[in-house]
Batch of 2 targets.
Target 1
Amino acid sequence: EPEVTQTPSHQVTQMGQEVILRCVPISNHLYFYWYRQILGQKVEFLVSFYNNEISEKSEIFDDQFSVERPDGSNFTLKIRSTKLEDSAMYFCASRDGHLTNEKLFFGSGTQLSVL
Amino acid sequence: AQSVTQLGSHVSVSEGALVLLRCNYSSSVPPYLFWYVQYPNQGLQLLLKYTSAATLVKGINGFEAEFKKSETSFHLTKPSAHMSDAAEYFCAVSDQTGNQFYFGTGTSLTVIP
């Protein structure tokens, strides 16, 4: 089965630093997502991306966050100035086509630790 | 607004026993409902989904779930637990745009030999 790939698997950074989390969605997919899971809490929606623009974002996704699809294969999440509370597992996901019930394919996640 | 509630953050069953993981949803529109499984150090994998067709949905690895509108529930079951079923299970709901998935807090399943 095709996979969504995320790198790195674990990233450690100092508070206030910028981080970029990278994802390679499945090649023919059109919709891309970032979710995060703070330890012990539920998986939370951050942002969805379609046709090279953000289609929906949550309250969590403030001005410190941005997403980009720089080269047609990668899908990145940037946090400009990390805070301690940004420590979480970040999941990238993608889905195919225009059917709204198409399943999401998730990557294995990037564990971000902000010190 | 949509949300799901998973009752029981930890469930333990004996190998061969029935698995029952509970999920209740809240949705102002007809929902799409999903169960995902997360094995250690892996991403979320789809077990099964309900998208307004048959109310009893069969998924992978012998799991199934039944959509009960009157109870706003979508509980996950498996007749006989296997050691390999030990994982974290997440219930999720989306509306029909599929643009946002709302996840529950997860249920950690332990299978006792």
Target 2
Amino acid sequence: AQTVTQSQPEMSVQEAETVTLSCTYDTSENNYYLFWYKQPPSRQMILVIRQEAYKQQNATENRFSVNFQKAAKSFSLKISDSQLGDTAMYFCAFISGNQFYFGTGTSLTVIP
Amino acid sequence: DAGVIQSPRHEVTEMGQEVTLRCKPISGHNSLFWYRQTMMRGLELLIYFNNNVPIDDSGMPEDRFSAKMPNASFSTLKIQPSEPRDSAVYFCASSSRNYGYTFGSGTRLTVV
């Protein structure tokens, strides 16, 4: 069975600082995709970043980057230069075939 | 592209009434998913379709819930009869093969 674990229910960070959200997953698949989604108070689910398991290079999108450790089955999200607009729930997700598995989310608060 | 379009945005209904939620996926996406989000359970996959065919409806909580996808551009999720415990945000999402989901804005359902 595939599972996605986010062990940090809540986190906070000072504006302009860097924060890392953790995610681990369990799978027997070799080819899969990992994602981070952001859900701000508007409740819209927004794709933040995507990583293909067959790529060793960590994905980067502006201030967002991941640390993908395939052997450890770890997929953490680093947010640099945190902004107030980054305050949101962040969900780690894993895709296998046509089905997604979501973590339970980390609530991130950026403190002015 | 207008993205995944859900309607209505908000729905308030009385217990026992029929509720129909609608979704228009992104053109060209061959998979469609219905999720329910609550504080208690987080994101739950209810059902997903591939090429308009229901593939897995094991997440549908009860026979009161039904979903259809009559064509590639439209899907409905129906609850009949509705109950207060069905109150949640219902998301529709579509995807095109491993790229990741694109979510709709969700329908906030309140059953009183």
